[in-house]
Amino acid sequence: MNPGASAPRLSLSGVSVAYRRNRVLHDVGFAVGPAEIHALIGQNGSGKSTLVKVLTGLCTAEPGACVEIDGVPLRLPARLADVRAAGVAVVHQSLGLVPQMSVLENMRIGRLRARRFSRRIRWDRERAAAGRMFDRLGRHVPLDVAVHRLSEEDRATVAIARALQDTPHGGGLIVFDESTRALSRRSLEHFYEVLDDVVRAGTSALLISHRLEEVAEVADRVTVLRDGKLVEAGRAARRGSEGELARLMLGRALQAISSGGGHARPHAEPAVELADVIATRLDGAAVRVAPGEIVGLTGLADSGYDQVPYVLAGVERAASGKLLVNGDHIDLDRFTPAAALGAGVALVPGDRERAGLASGQTVAENAALPRTGTAGPRLSPIRRRAELAELIPWLDRLRLHPPDPHAVVGRLSGGNQQKVVLAKWLSRGLRLLVLHEPTQAVDVGARAVIVDAVKDAAASGCGVLVAGSDENELSMLCDRVLVFRDGRVHRELAGPCRPEVIVAAVFASSQRRPLRANREERVCP
Ligand SMILES: Nc1ncnc2c1ncn2[C@@H]1O[C@H](COP(=O)(O)OP(=O)(O)OP(=O)(O)O)[C@@H](O)[C@H]1O
After folding, report:
1. Cα(413) to centroid(ligand 1), Å
2. Gene3D superfamilies, from UniProt (predicted)?
3. How far apart are CA 463 and CA 288, in angstroms?
4. I need a surface site. Which of 44, 47, 273, 521 has the fewest CB within 10 A?
5. For ligand 1, atom 7, which residue shows the shortest CA distance?
6. CA nearest 497: which of 247, 225, 295, 224?
7. Which of 185-199, 222-236, 245-259, 386-400 has the lowest mean pLDDT?
8. Which residues, in sequence order, are bridge partners of residue 38?
9. Which of these ranges, 327-341, 383-397, 404-418, 444-458, has the smallest mean pLDDT?
10. Ligand 1 atom closest to Cα of 415?
11. What is the pLDDT of residues 67-82, one digit of tens each?
12. Where are the beta strands (DSSP E) in 248-386?
C-alpha cells in the first residue's frame, strides 16, 4: 500500500519541548493537507519557531512525539538529510537569501557538487539545475546578478525557486518562517502569485506570519498556538477574519488603534534636520522632524528611504551632508554611532542582527549598554537598581515573554528580542527616535502596544522618524509621510494618511490586487 495516497502532507502529534525545565510546547498536534497553504500563528514566544526546529532537527521533542510526512514517520530527532529527502524545505526570515551572492550561488549553496578527481565545481551543471527550477516556476531571473541588485519581486521568486529544489514535483512542503515580513504590498502580491502556482501543482506551504491580514487573505487553514498549547488546529481561513484570529491568538479582543501621531509641533524649532545627504543610495535627501512629530519615510525597495535611519545613527557613512541639531551643524561624513547618541539620536534597526544585542547578556544588562558603554555587571548596585526601575514598566508594557529582566536575551524568541531593543530606547529621554520597521516580527497585541508607546514618546516631545514598507503601520503612526524616489524625497503626504493613499503614492497607481485571487475556487481537504 502506498502510505502517502490519502495521508496528510505533514502530520504532527504529541509534540512537547522543554528548554531545561521550562516546557514551551505542550502536546501539540495538527496536520497540513496536500496542496494547501496552512498558516501557523501565535504571540511572540508561543512556540512557532520551536515547532519548526523539531521538524528540522534543531530541537529535540520529548518522547511520544510523532512527525509523519505523506504518512511516513520521520525518525526523531530529525536529521537534515532525512528532512530534505522527505521533501521539506524551510525559507527563513527575510527570504533567507545572501544579498552579496549571485542568484546562481544562492540557488545552489549547500548543493554544489565538485568533480570527483579535480574537485572543481561543474558550473555548467549548476546553471542547468538552477535553470530547471525557474522553468518549473515558469518565471526567470538572471542567474549571474547579485541578489541585492534584484528587484524585491525577483528576490521573492528566487526564494521560492530555491526552496522548490528540495520538494518533489507536485509534492513536498515549504515552511515559510516569517519569510515575507519585509516585503512591500506589491512584492507580496507577486510572492503569492508565484506561490499559488506552486501550491496548485500539489506542493504544500506552512506559513508563519504575524501579519494577520495576510494570513486571512491567503491561507486555506490556520492553526493557532497560545503559550505553547494548541488553541485551534486547522480552522478554515477567510478574508476579513483577522480580528477573530487575533482574539484566538491573544485570548482577548484586540484594542483599536487610532491613526496619525497627533502630537506634532510643526512651528517649533526642528528636533533634527538632515540636509543634502549624499550616500550610496541617497542623492540630496533632506528631512526635517519637529519635536513631538512622527514622520514616516517610505518608497520602493531601491528608493533609498531605508538608508536614512542608518546614516542618522552613524552606522552607515554618508559621502556628504549636514545634520542640524540644537543649532549645531554636524558633518555627516564623519558621523559615528557615539556622535549620534551624543546628539540624542537612537536607532531601533529593522533586523535584530543589526540591533547590537549581546545575546549572552540579560535583558537588563542589554538595556544598560547604551548609557554606560559596558555590560551591566560593571554598574554599581545603585545604578543597576535605578536602571531596572526605569526599564521594568516598559518591559511590562511591551509584554515581554517571559516577563523577566534577568532572562538571557539569546534565549528569548525573535519578537521578544525586538521588544528588548525598543524598551531599551523608550525608557530614556531622546531628541530623536529613529525606527526601521518597528513592528516587524512582533505579534498584533504587541504591535498595538508599541504604536501607543511610540506616540507617548512623541507626546513627551521626542521627534520620531519611522522608515517602513508597511502602509498600515505608517498610517497608524505618522503625522506626515515622505515618499522617496531616486534617493530623495519625491512626495510629501501631509496629515494622517490612509494606507491606500500611501500605497498609491509609492507605486504611482492605486490598484491593489488580491493576494490570492484563486483561493475560493479551491476545496480544502
Ligand atoms: N535556546 C533557548 N533556550 C531557552 N529558551 C528558549 C530558547 N529558544 C526559545 N526559548 C523559549 O521558548 C519559547 C518559544 O520560543 P519560540 O522562538 O518558539 O517562539 P515564537 O512563537 O517563534 O516567537 P516569535 O514570534 O517571537 O518568533 C519562548 O518562551 C522562548 O523564550
Report:
1. 4
2. P-loop containing nucleotide triphosphate hydrolases (3.40.50.300)
3. 10
4. 521
5. 411
6. 295
7. 245-259
8. 206, 221
9. 383-397
10. 26
11. 999 999 999 999 988 9
12. 272-279, 282-289, 294-299, 320-325, 328-331, 345-348
Domain boundaries of the chain, sorted by first residue: 10-96+166-250, 264-344+462-506, 347-429
Give the number of other CB atoms < 10 A from CB of residue 503: 20
Mean pLDDT over 267-283 rounds to 87
Q: Is the pLDDT of residue 398 over 80?
A: yes
CA of 47 relative to ligand 1 center, distance in Å: 6
Cα distance between residue 85 and residue 89, in whole Å? 10
164 and 111 Cβ atoms separated by less than 8 Å: no
Question: Both ends of the chain: CA-CA distance in Å?
Answer: 21
What pLDDT, in 10s, does the model give residues 172-214? 999 998 888 777 777 788 889 889 989 999 999 999 998 898 9
Distance 76 CA to ligand 1 centre (A): 20
Ligand 1 atom closest to residue 53's alpha carbon, by position in its atom list: 18
Q: How far is the CA of 481 from the centre of ligand 1 (A)?
A: 35
Q: Is 479 exposed, middle or buried (0-12, 13-18, 19+ CB in 10 A)?
A: buried
What's the pLDDT score for residue 436?
Answer: 92
Please give the distance of CA 360 from its chain centroid, rounded to a whole number. Answer: 22
Model confidence at 215, pLDDT cuts 50, 70, 90, reads very high
Pocket test for ligand 1, best of 412, 421, 422 (most atoms within 8 A of CB): 412
Whether 10-96+166-250 and 264-344+462-506 share one fold: the answer is yes
Whether the bond into 8 is cis, omega within 30 of 0: no
The grid coordinates listed for 5 are: 495516497
Q: Which atom of ligand 1 is nearest to the CA of 225?
A: 21
CA distances in angstroms from 271 to 220, 264, 314, 383, listed in the order given: 48, 11, 17, 29
Q: Which three cell numbers stand for residue 49?
A: 519557531
pLDDT at 152 over 90: no
Q: For the residues of 197-220, what is the DSSP string, one character each? A: HHHHTT-EEEEE-S-HHHHHHH-S
The distance from CA 91 to its chain's CA centroid, rounded to whole angstroms, is 13
CATH class entry, domain 264-344+462-506? alpha beta
43 Cα–ligand 1 center, Å:
11
Residues in a beta bridge with 350: none
Residue nearest atom 16 of ligand 1, based on CA coordinates: 47
Report the nearest-CA residue for atom 28 of ligand 1: 45
Q: Which residues line ligand 1 (CB under 6 A)?
A: 19, 24, 42, 44-50, 401-402, 411-416
The more confident residue out of 421 and 95 is 421
Best mutation site among 19, 20, 419, 447 for ligand 1 pocket (most ligand atoms within 8 Å of CB): 19
255 DSSP 8-state letter:
P
Residue 418 Cα to ligand 1 midpoint, Å, equals: 13
| Residue of minimum CA distance from atom 3 in ligand 1 | 411
Superfamily of domain 10-96+166-250: P-loop containing nucleotide triphosphate hydrolases (3.40.50.300)
Residue whose CB lies within 8 A of the most ligand 1 atoms, among 25, 44, 50, for a mutation test: 50
